UniProtKB/TrEMBL annotation:
One of its GO terms (biological process) is chorismate biosynthetic process. Residues 6-294 form the Prephenate/arogenate dehydrogenase domain. Its EC number is 2.5.1.19. Pathway: Metabolic intermediate biosynthesis; chorismate biosynthesis; chorismate from D-erythrose 4-phosphate and phosphoenolpyruvate: step 6/7; Amino-acid biosynthesis; L-tyrosine biosynthesis; (4-hydroxyphenyl)pyruvate from prephenate (NAD(+) route): step 1/1. 3-phosphoshikimate binds at K324, S325, R329, S470, Q472, D618, K645. It catalyses: 3-phosphoshikimate + phosphoenolpyruvate = 5-O-(1-carboxyvinyl)-3-phosphoshikimate + phosphate; prephenate + NAD(+) = 3-(4-hydroxyphenyl)pyruvate + CO2 + NADH. Catalyzes the transfer of the enolpyruvyl moiety of phosphoenolpyruvate (PEP) to the 5-hydroxyl of shikimate-3-phosphate (S3P) to produce enolpyruvyl shikimate-3-phosphate and inorganic phosphate. Monomer. The keyword Nucleus does not apply. This is 3-phosphoshikimate 1-carboxyvinyltransferase. Phosphoenolpyruvate binds at K324, G397, R425, Q472, R649, R694. InterPro entries: 6-PGluconate_DH-like_C_sf, Enolpyruvate_Tfrase_dom, Enolpyruvate_Tfrase_sf, EPSP_synthase, EPSP_synthase_CS, NAD(P)-bd_dom_sf, PDH_C, PDH_N. Its main location: cytoplasm.
Length: 745
């Protein structure tokens, strides 16, 4: 990027201004740099260090020839600087500042240079440190840091563009914001923390034996008070210039602090835990943002791809993570129960964590997860509170559809949003029957999220014949039925997973199941219980297919849920000739589990029985890989639901297999795949996953039998259902390298 700024003048030779100028000089954007500071030493030092070429004790002289003027002085000094330089400004000179408060600088500019003066661009770099002065100047200070520019309606476009470019040259990520909004946001994120930090140090240092505090208060004190070493003059000015906004957040903080004090006084440890766990979750999320692992506009998450190459025969005995469907439901029912529910084996994947966060947002105190343990302090059927904003459910269809049912029964309004993939998935299938029950549910165009539910509707029980075999829709209606007048019954066209029915019973709620119809009566209560979440058969499926297709393999997967509504993958693999044994079958907390031993076998193509489709609905991506390794043709029909999952899974799998040299064709409701047979190998290539976790993992499994490396793109979402997939896969014989590309702004 070539940026020509001409003669640059910097007024105020502190860390902020000097660092920027240093970066500009290094990039060759300046023809000359002059500097001014009230302090002669600083000017001399800046010249010696080559940050400025010239200085003068007369401010007017420093700016007289300048094309680009950086005002980098404490906020309250801006006005007098402007008054002093106004008469000497070159026609068309561009001015900008670096202050933490924009409203007061905007008024100073208007008062001194005129309300329509368009050459002053208000800016604020979110960087800096408690270090200060010329000597600390660092040309890299702004690299990958945000700079907020707050243009006004009368700001000249060319001046704005130059200032943006000058920041970009220094490596900054420039964002634009409205002046008032900036001051509100900064009051909360920067000004209040500084105020508290200064205040705490002052309180402790003045009331206690100083030596004791500074001697023993190592960790917490040091971390919390680092920023109290910042410049007092600068912060005095900020607290004064942004007074109103700071007072507003300070009041909010004081209220919350008073409440926390009350909880501690009353020894209400649950409420105290609520504050701590919510704060920890928020802080952990923030750490992810800093590491660019969380998606936050306008930052993109780091892109993760897998480079997968041929593996060896699989061996080992291990446990895959907890069942996603059961994990979601444990949070939902635990939150609405009376009493404390203890969950073990909880899936710490992004999907189930999205459900957990949603309930935290609605005021439920949830401890953990920590190594799969979660403690939920249930609030009872009517104890949820309105969330502070929309419920963001990430990639998780289950969260959104099941929550839609529960939210329909609340007194408050809720909006539910999701990521790009979830935002394309059909929600009319839950919104329509909920409306029949009397709920007030709105979706965006053609039934897509966001889903908005108005609270306070009186729900009435209905009978509903499900138009498709969907456990999510069934569960949504049963959960709404808990809040409805009378009976709600749902009849499904084919059996689907029945975890909701089982878990409701586990929480002491009466559910009648009669053939394909499940019925609940509204108005009951849930009683807390302990839940042992089995390993997820949907995650186990990748290893079942992997061991089946890789000659010489012999693995055992521990404690896998084998609920009869979930074992389609076992039935289908067995029908294809798979060597699968269920060992140590037992029941835990109302769900059957077993250890599953899989040995390699030459599979053969089959026409997959349609009654198995709902029982293996999430396992088809990996079953497509099994089919590609089989002898002969595999035909799938009756599986149109695959087209509305996280991606169109028929298309994504067929395209990927074709890329790897397999003869595969998609049909409206399934696919036809010609198996490569025993000696067949996949070719290499790039796989488009459409950010779908199951597509990514399925092609990783395929790589066991690849002749050339397979590059699998966009695999970050594997963390939605199977966070330690690569670790387990590589541990038992696969060969997957994770390639992470830096996030882009
Ligand atoms: O109820 C559940 O937990 C799920 C039901 C299925 O969705 P559908 O109900 O849309 O088939 C499945 O695909 C999803 O992964 C989880
Ligand atoms: C379809 C899936 O999940 P969901 O519908 O919850 O996004 C899945 O995990 O394969």
């Amino acid at each position: 990027m070539t940026v020509t700024l001409g003669h640059v003048a910097v007024v105020g030779l502190g860390l902020i201004g000097c660092s920027w100028v240093k970066a500009l000089r290094q990039a060759g954007c300046t023809t000359a740099v002059s500097g001014f500071d009230r302090n002669l030493d600083s000017m001399q030092q800046a010249q010696q260090l080559g940050i400025i070429d010239s200085y003068s004790e007369q401010l007017a002289e420093v700016v007289a020839d300048a094309d680009f003027i950086i005002v980098s002085v404490p906020i309250k000094a801006v006005r007098s600087v402007l008054e002093e330089i106004a008469p000497s400004l070159k026609h068309n000179a561009i001015l900008t500042d670096v202050g933490s408060v924009k409203g007061s600088v905007a008024s100073d500019v208007a008062a001194v240079l005129g309300a329509q003066f368009g050459r002053f661009v208000l800016g604020h770099p979110i960087a800096g440190s408690e270090r200060s002065g010329v000597a600390a100047a660092d040309a890299d200070l702004y690299r990958r840091h945000k700079v907020i520019i707050t243009p006004q309606p009368h700001t000249d476009t060319d001046a704005l563009q130059q200032v943006v470019a000058a920041w970009q040259v220094a490596g900054a990520e420039v964002e634009q914001m409205d002046v008032v909004h900036h001051d509100e946001v900064l009051a909360a994120t920067s000004h209040l923390p500084h105020l508290l930090s200064y205040n705490l140090v002052d309180t402790l240092a003045s009331r206690h034996e100083n030596k004791e505090i500074f001697h023993y208060a190592a960790g917490g004190f040091r971390d919390f008070t680092r920023i109290a070493a910042s410049s007092p003059v600068m912060w005095r000015d900020i607290f004064s210039a942004n007074r109103e906004q700071i007072l507003a957040v300070l009041d909010m903080f004081q209220q919350d602090l008073t409440q926390l004090r009350q909880h501690i006084e009353a020894d209400d440890v649950t409420q105290v835990m609520g504050v701590l766990t919510r704060a920890k979750a928020a802080r952990d999320h923030f750490s992810k943002i800093l590491a660019r692992r969380a998606y936050v506009e306008p930052m993109k998450t780091a892109t993760i791809s897998y480079l997968a190459s041929a593996g060896r025969a699989l061996s080992g005995q291990f446990r895959v993570p907890g069942d996603k469907s059961i994990s979601h439901r444990s949070i939902m029912l635990g939150s609405l129960a009376n009493g404390v529910t203890e969950v073990s084996g909880f899936l710490e994947g992004e999907d189930s964590l999205a459900t957990l966060q949603a309930f935290r947002d609605m005021g439920v105190v949830i401890e953990g997860p920590h190594r799969g343990r979660v403690t939920i302090h249930g609030v009872g059927m009517h104890g949820l509170q309105p969330p502070p904003g929309s419920l963001y459910l990430g990639n998780s269809g289950t969260s959104m559809r099941l929550l839609a049912g529960l939210m329909a029964g609340q007194k408050f309004n809720v909006e539910m949003t999701g990521d790009e993939s979830l935002s394309k998935r059909p929600m009319g299938r839950v919104a329509d029957p909920l409306a029949l029950m009397g709920a007030n549910v709105d979706t965006a165009d053609s039934g897509r999220p966001p889903v908005r539910i108005r609270g306070g509707s009186a729900l009435r029980g209905i009978h509903y014949d499900l138009p498709m075999a969907s456990a999510q829709v069934k569960s949504c209606l049963l959960l709404a039925g808990l809040y409805a007048e009378g009976e709600t019954s749902v009849t499904e066209p084919a059996p689907t997973r029945d975890h909701t029915e089982r878990m409701l019973k586990g929480f002491g709620y009466d559910v009648q199941v009669d053939g394909s119809t499940a019925t609940v009566k509204g108005g009951g209560e849930l009683t807390a219980c302990d839940i042992d979440v089995p390993a997820d058969i949907s995650s186990a499926a990748f290893f079942m297919v992997a061991a089946s297709i890789m000659p010489g393999s012999d693995i055992t997967l521990e404690h896998v849920g084998i609920n009869p509504t979930r074992i389609g993958v076992i039935n289908i693999l067995k029908a294809m000739g798979g060597n699968i044994e269920l060992l140590n079958e037992r029941e835990v907390g109302g769900e059957p589990v077993a250890d599953i031993r899989i040995r390699s076998a030459q599979l053969k193509g089959i026409h997959i029985p349609e009654d198995q489709v709902p029982l293996a609905i999430d396992e088809f991506p990996s079953l497509f890989v099994a089919a590609a390794c089989a002898d002969g043709e595999t035909v799938l029909t009756g599986a149109e639901e695959l087209r509305v999952k996280e991606s169109d899974r028929i298309q994504a799998m067929v395209d990927g297999l074709v890329t790897l040299g397999v003869d595969a064709k998609g049909t409206d409701d399934g696919a036809v795949i010609q198996g490569m047979g025993g000696d067949g190998q996949f070719g290499g290539g790039d796989i488009v996953t459409y950010h779908d976790h199951r597509i990514a993992m399925s092609f990783a499994v395929a790589s066991l039998r690849t002749a050339e490396p397979i590059r699998i793109l966009d695999c970050a979402n594997v963390a939605t259902s199977f966070p330690n997939f690569v670790e387990l896969a590589n541990g038992c014989g696969m060969h997957i390298e994770v390639v992470e590309e830096g996030a882009t702004a």
